[in-house]
Amino acid sequence: MINQFDPTSRPMLEGVQGNILKAHGRHHTANVFIRCNPDDESATNTRAWLKSLVTNEVVKSAYTHLRNNALFKSSGGEIDTGLFACVHISAAGYEYLFPDDARIGRFEATFRNGMAGADLRDPDPALWEVGFRGEQHVMILLAHANPAELEKAVVDVQQAVCAFGFITTLERGNALLNHAGAGIEHFGYVDGVSQPLFFEDEWDTYKQQNHIRSARDVLFDPRADKGLVLTADPFGNGDANARGSYFVFRKLEQNVKGFKQAEANVASQLRLEGDDRERAGAMIVGRFEDGTPAQMSDEEGLINSAMLNNFDYKTADGASKCPFHAHIRKVNPRSGLLNGGMAEAKKHIMARRGIPFGSRTDGPNDGQIYNKPEGGVGLLFMSYQASIRNQFEVIQHNWANSEQTPDNDDPTGSGPTVGIDPVIGQGDGTRTGQFATVWGDRQSLTDALFPQFVTMKGGEYFFAPSMAFLNNINDIQQA
Ligand code: HEM
């Protein structure tokens, strides 16, 4: 684990961009997707702009980012941490900047093929939103606590881009909070709880929040090595601290009204009554709306619910508490993963950095269905990882889109077909799962249908280059 206050960690942290090891934490964001013009002068101007972002300290290192966060905390939130920005380049972007350069071959093949070429059962790329069709070369993520200040930064980028290309799409994100101040997604569930932890102080907080007093209390250990998200930057020019991270962006639209109606239908089909009806949604997501894990409780309201993450999936429970198909169990089977258990499951974890998009006037947790949006809102899913193939694609392709469970309480390996992930599984639109009518009772498992309410509107694979790359971009020789 990294001790952010240890001076020996500084060169490593100065070598990478912020937001990878620790989230930027601002509530308002703009993802600006840029296509550069195909002439030499534009390519020169693109390089000059990327360099200016670090020279003018628009893009800062993870080290500066952490130092600002510490200042913000120690000032009791008085010191404004200002604009946050980080830059991402697609495979087409590297080809544009360094045509036919041999170093491009050192990026993983999955990244080089791009999201449009991936086998994810996504809608045809020709039907994606217009801004995501065709090439994007660079994506800059801007974030600020103050929306007006964010707007000024967006205008600066718009003006700069005129010198070398145009913006294909600008995706705005805004944090959505529940009554307790926890971040939620549009279906109303607390999100961003389970994350890999890279810093010692984060682990201390985790132990406190999850009532861990000794090693024996640890059921899910989120500690991770930086290698889970960082990898050598092929354009780092031999600098040992030049590390970058593969970045996945997916715009996922959510039909909230449809989802809430289907939750109610499942509750009725299972004959759940009163507060127990909330368990229908918890058996889809794997957590209640307030974050309480379905594996830990049959009702919401556990203390620290929005932070609880110290649980695993016990063999004796099977699918009777948290179903095998539930979103969080599909995408992180924890202890239950066949052929490898927790150690294997942890190799595929990503640092998730998503934020909701779209506005609405209803209360996401008001218990109503009629007033919920059917479109125009969703999640800008973003994640950092050391390998898109071994992390994001294992989760989306091998696990979420599969009818089988990677998680299996049968040691012989002949586990049940459990249906695809009801939240993000991409398939023919229908999915069947097994739901316990009585929490914890394996005899009460009952089949129920749940349709698809998340639609992929476009996205791309990127690489977040090292600080050394951005600093030296004008001096990097063609290879
Ligand atoms: C609109 C789309 C999505 C919604 C509504 C959604 C919702 C949620 C919620 C409510 C949680 C529980 C909070 C937490 O444990 O952090 C969660 C966790 C998670 N989601 Fe999603 N998610 C979406 C898309 C995705 C995608 C595309 C992926 C990856 C392919 C993904 C991977 C994960 C992972 C890895 C976790 C943590 C699971 C754990 O460690 O227990 N999610 N999601």
Structure description:
The protein is an alpha+beta fold and 479 residues long. It folds into 2 domains: 7-180 and 226-250 and 460-472, Apc35880, domain 1 (Alpha-Beta Plaits, 2-Layer Sandwich), CATH 3.30.70.1030; 252-458, no CATH class. It is 25% helix and 18% strand. It is built from 13 helices and 14 strands. It has helices at residues 10-14, 40-55, 62-74, 91-97, 109-113, 147-161, 200-209, 256-269, 278-285, 327-331, 341-346, 392-400, 467-472; strands at 28-36, 84-89, 138-144, 165-174, 176-177, 183-184, 231-232, 243-254, 351-352, 355-357, 378-385, 432-436, 445-449, 454-464. The strands form 4 sheets. Strands 7, 8, 9, 10, 11 and 14 form a 6-stranded antiparallel beta sheet that branches. Helix 8 (256-269) crosses helix 9. The chain is globular, with a radius of gyration of 22 Å. The two termini are 35 Å apart. 48% of the residues are buried. The model has no long low-confidence stretch (mean pLDDT 94). Protoporphyrin IX containing FE is lined by residues 185, 187, 189-194, 250, 252, 254, 285, 287, 327-328, 331-332, 352, 378-379, 381, 392, 395-396, 400, 423-424, 454.
